[in-house]
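Ticket reopened. Same input as before:
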Amino acid sequence: MIAKEKLAEIVGGTNVGDDAATLAAYSKDESFVNELRPACVVKPHSADEVKQLVTLASETLTPLVPVSSGPPHFRGDTIPSTGGAVVVDLSGMNKIVFVDRPRRVAMVEPGVTFGEIIPAAEKEGIRLNMPLLPRSTKSVLGSLMDREPVMMPKYQWDISDPIACLEVVFGTGEDFRTGQAAGPGSIEEQWAVGGVQKAPYGPHVATWHRLVQGAKGTMGISTWVSMRCELLPKLEEPFVIGSAQLPPLMEMASWLIRLRMVNECFILSGSDLAAIFSEDRSADYQRLQAALPAWVLFYVVAGYDYFPEERVDSSLSDITELAKRLAVQPARAVAGLSAREILKAVQGPCPDPYWKLRGKGAFEDVLFLAPNDKIEGLVEIMSGLAGQAGYPVSEMGVYVQPMVQGCGSHCEFTLTYDPESASQAAQVKDLAAAATKALMNSGAFFSRPYGDNTRLIMNRDAASLTILRKLKKIFDPSGIMNPGKLCL
Amino acid sequence: MALDKDIHSAFADVVGEENICDDPTMMASYFKTDFACVVMPKDTAQVQTIVRLCNKYELQFRPICTGWTGVFIPGTVMIDLRRMDKIIEIDEKNMCAVCEPYVTSAQLQAELFKRGLNTNIKGSGAQGSALLRGHGPMDQSCGADDRNHLAVEWVTPEGELVQIGSIGSSDEWFCGDGPGPSLRCLVQSTVPPSCTPGVFTKIATKLYHWPGPERYHLKGNSPNYSLIEMPDNMMLRYYSFDSVEKMIEAEIKLGESEVCYIVYGINAAMVSANVTSSNEEQMALFQQISGQVKGNGFVVIIAGNSQADFAYKKKVLEAIMAETGGESLKAVERPEIGEILMRQCTRPTGAIRETMRPGGTFKSIPNMGQRDLTVRWAIGAGEAKLPLIEKGLIVDDGGGFFGWGVEHGHLGKTEIFCAFSPMDSEANKAVGEWATEQGARAVEEKYFALTMSPLKTIDERTGPAVSNYHLWWYKVLDALDPNGVIPLKGVSKLTP
Amino acid sequence: MALEDYAGDMNMCCRCSACKFIPLQMVSGFTHANVCPSISRYNFHFFSGGGRLNLGAVGLEKGFNYTPWYLSSIYNCQLCGACDVSCKYGMDMEVLLPLQALRIQAVKDGQAHPELQKVVERMTATGSMVPPEGAKRGDWAKSLGLKDAGKQKVDVLYHVGCLTSYDKGMQKLAQATAQLLGAAGVDFGILGDAETCCGARAYEMGHEKEFLAQAKKSMELIKQSGAKTLVTSCATCYQAYAVLYDRFGLKGDLEVLHTSQLLADLIEQGKLQPKNDLGLSVTYHDPCHLGRLGEPWIHWEGTKIPGDRFIFDPPKTYRRGTGGVYEPPRDVLRSLPGVTLTEMDRIKEYAWCSGSCGGVTDSNPEFAQWTATERIEEALCTGAEALVSTEPWSEKLLADTIAANGGALKVYDLVELVAQATEEGGR
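Engineering reply: fixed in the latest deploy. New output:
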């Protein structure tokens, strides 16, 4: 355990918190993960401070739990898994380091939120490939490090996109920069010759950022990320297609993406869409949910600098042919909800309260990747399990993000519940656990494990886990980096 | 040297006597190197057993597929993966294909074309393994490098089987990352020894839409095949520019507009090599077109998914060329030249003509990274070639370099090479010096560092300038290879 | 040229592996992409063209060590030339010539293959590649009343070849050829019993000395006959007289035609009129000796121009398989009523060898049959009822292999079908 004074020497006295209220705020979150109080919370404001913290923690075998986003948290990975932990709250490191239009790249510190980067990037004419409606306090770096699916699959060439490079402090206290940022030279020296930390590969044959992404801080703490950005379109035409069945929408989405005709492209259940566009689960939500079809595909056709209208026109004419072939009907609105409204909503973070909380006050997500042709079956399995558990299936939200890395799809079931109701909470918790097992046995790939189901998921691939543990011993030999997460 | 009798029997018990050779005379056929033996497994289980035997008998090993290049250490066991040559599956719904190591890119692509799909093929040629990480002419629209790899089946240096990604927990190959952090951080199928230690026995690779024909229908005889008909939804041009800056500007605009299937920045010497079938023909054509090009340039292929799409892309291309002063090379507009390039760009088979045919060998400095930055370095490296050309030590290509934008210009590849005769010791020396100087300049001037070479001295020189990557990599190797069966450790490991 | 003369070529091999596959632009699927039977069967790189070049280069530097594996590499090769064609798609270098030289070197060094040694000795003794077994070479022509070119001068000499002359199953080809030539009004003669082996298979077996001696004998007979044109229905003999003899300065002004070329001309000129509907779906096997190996020899002597580039003075034109005899057999097939031709995946200069070249039928019959089996499978993929070729050695091996495996695919020589299709032949 590190003495508070030592921590204060690094980050300043006002940035060390060990009062009851502060500790309580970091000891639990909205997930089912067990509450565990940290020893204290520190707020560094520079990479150098982070480095000193990690070095000290390594010497004293003090667990560190990095947190980039502000509350509320939903996944349990920011809760210590072991006693005596120091939470490293990085939200104070919130510089937008640069936004570079010509090379379509931006660099941010961990505390920068989507609400902050979006206007900064827009000013330069570019934007980030975003996840669906992140909460207002969500850290951009946190989202990228979590491998959250992005809404524009066309621009996700690799599953780690839009990450370009990272600076990370490994559990040894040594810093490392991935990709082009590694060197030669410091970041400033690279800038001086026109380098912008864009290329993700290397140095050498490894692609180091993949080691840190998805690791939930178990390998090190990232102190900035550079990320590729896309051009802001000059013209956007959003559309929706409603359907009672999921497969035709999956087929349509896969062709739209395969032929690179659309930007944002995702599928939501009527229940999810209703939840996004309602204040709460009142009449508004009921009316909207009743009016919406079971499934809605949303996509955007865009034009850029050169003849944007013609680009849109030629794409639309091709999409019309495609739609005829697949017997689906693109429209500008569905159930009175216009596609443009949807577009406006999803191009920014979610206004508070976070949309998944509006219904009943709490939720649990069951999320995974799966082959496209298995998604329908997995939805059926989940619906069956929900029904058996007595969960109101019509209220279960489903978000399908097609063609992650151009291949399978992300599928996310949202189970809302009243946090004041112990029985509802237990029902959802048990359902999530049972669903994880059943879905895994039917081909779902839980690539981003959270909470209590982590052990089940990680142990299923014991051979990979063995290698990860070897790597953990290298990059965090003292075992101080978020110990207990991911079975590492 | 021949193996000890017991060790030979142990390997033969696994693969059969007909699939192991430790005759020292025959090792010369494999890269003129005295390997301990060559052993050819037929499946993953046999690979594992062989690797375990190497651990047991303290033998170092090294796998190869078609094996064009690499560094080869005497005394190692060469694991020739030729018998592992199956396409395991092509999954159109999930846009991925799974292959064993000895499936060539040409074979995979030919099957994919039938289904309206494509795979990116490395510039080194379609005879190479479909598994390899690398760059090629189709990077613009088909991704590149390790970014097209999905799930991987990997036999570690200890002989353990690790199935990386979705295949580790299910029967599906569509994802290479997770659970948790991705082992694709390490699992890199580039050319050994600059790659992950161990053996890849299957890799899933990402597929792309192919707007072209189900197969190219060709007439004529080798080496002069020609398309019976150019696909009517595809067009190829070669544009040259007044300056490198204008070329890069055009490249970026084309990337941002997303209209090109291919942007392939080969220079006039490479164009003339690609489309000719002898060195003499190449010299004549190079003389002709180097007088016709304004300067550096690139091949562009546009492909429409419909007439409207094609018309739009053509219009944008013409507008960007007008803005940047890109001039179309008339020679390439001729169908008999254009269609050769069309095929050589979509099924790369011209690398040998460009690199090996002129002089007999070549030495290259490649870089995958930020395009505009590496081009600035390449200009200097090209100027440094001119004295060697003047002395007649290297083939005259005008001091050219080449490269292209990757993923619609987000990333880039820049490369420069010298072609020369392997029998000319003075040329060898001069080219070696040129490469060392230009590599060092890249580091000193902060453009990039060459980190793919295995040599200990390079690691020690560049490592400290590049986040001490080498120290971390050696730790990774130590962890994965406790018994030291990977030969590159003997070459590049820092600790004594 | 001796092996040392190919040192530059052997050191040029950059190990790209193109020699193992058909020219990559022609790959149309997963199957039938391999072109080298040797490495396809045995898998080690030293069974490829490139692997053998490396062995040769190192052998020249350090001496040759004839181990069992080395001899296996040298002799388990049909010397079909496919590697040469594939390599030369991209490179300016020789592949087949050094491979031939490697085998010749082995024989010179006392490492002749024992089975091939026997065959060559028999050729020297009897003038035949095929055991005569008491028969006479001219027996096939007994009742035909053909002109004896040994006794009278002829302008056109029909050279039959060893296999066609002696093999009871193949003699019908000679008879059909003679009938067709006669029907077309070609004034020709045969040497009959006096005919002797062209010697080409001995050359392929590595016995250059014996080949040259045999070739001189054969040319002497041809000169004595007065023939200006030699016609043969054996592709091996075609390649011998048209290419090998030219290469060694033995051919002189002799015009050499394969029957497929002559038949194509005769049909075009109307001198042969295929009328009978054969109702047969076929595929055509390009024999190596008529195809890529049948490309005319290019006489060239020169030196590499010192400097950076691999160019020569005078400029060297490479034989890349482009100029083989590919179209005439196809033209003939297309002219036969009721015959539909479906091409295999590997044809013309990148055809898969039948397996009968390079002495392999004698040195390793199992490998020869394996190679033939691959070709038969490829033919079956076309859906054709019959496999047609223009090389008796190929046809025999293919037919024997089909029979051994119990297959239904028929094997014809081109002349058989022409004979059936013409009025004289009927069905």
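Chain C touches chain B through 62 residues (CB under 8 Å). The first strand of chain C starts at residue 147 and ends at 148. Please confirm and we'll close it.
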